[in-house]
Amino acid sequence: MEEKIKEKMKNIKYKLLVLSGxxxxxxxSVAVNLSYALxxxxxxxxxxxxxxxxxxxxxxxxxxGKRLTxxxxxxxPYQVLPNLKVVSMAFLLEKSETPVIWRGPLKMKAISQFLGxxxxxxxxxxxxxxxxxxxxxxxxxxxxxxGITGSIIVTTxxxxxxxxxxxTIRFSEKLxxxxxxxxxxxSYLKCPKCxxxxxxxxxxxxxxxxxxxxxxxxxxxxxxxxxxxxxDIGKPFFNSEGESAKIFRDIVEKILKKINVSTV
Length: 264
What we know:
Layout: H1 2-9, E1 12-20, H2 27-40, E2 45-49, H3 57-60, E3 69-71, E4 74-76, E5 78-81, E6 84-88, H4 104-116, E7 123-129, H5 136-144, E8 150-155, H6 159-174, E9 179-185, E10 189-190, E11 197-198, H7 205-213, E12 217-221, H8 225-232, H9 243-258
Parallel strand pairs: 1-7, 1-8, 2-6, 2-7, 8-9, 9-12
Antiparallel strand pairs: 3-4, 5-6, 10-11
């Protein structure tokens, strides 16, 4: 299977791993919106959801309940947009609330099949949404995919989140996966009447990591209730008019610049 995966990955130019130290920081939202943004920029993009126990990518893309098909003994990714296809454990579950009660070996086998038995075709980008932490799933990905372009690490500002992010950064470095940058999510809530910034979770976490590790803070995304509402109905916020969308568009440009990809 490893040789098969290597052959598949040769047809994908850039492989980006989205990581977080803790759950609930908006990692999947970042992965989904990054994929959506790249697809709208005419990059052929795939998103692989390897969060086996909590696969939410399909819901956030508005394709929850869809099914994967198989042709020529290979998985056909679900086509979300002309330039965006997705594979997720969610497509294999009878019901969205069905738990996946698997130990490490079964999870590793599933991820191997998602990589080696999927008709990804020729892609510009494969975005991999990993579960929080440094467990079996991100480890398996890092071991199976040769030459991962880099990781993007998502955090929130508070110190309790930073404790685990530090582990995630060191995990990425130990496995020779360059850290492209840090995204601080839920940085503040802006009062809709006066514009005052309410620091819900403290401040300065992302900046502190930037100074500590020399890794660029790509951007600070505010907390906007509309983002959560849109995620629930499968509507990425990237293309909206809000402040978060504008900041995220700038983040995407920074990511492309850091990996030397031209958007012209």
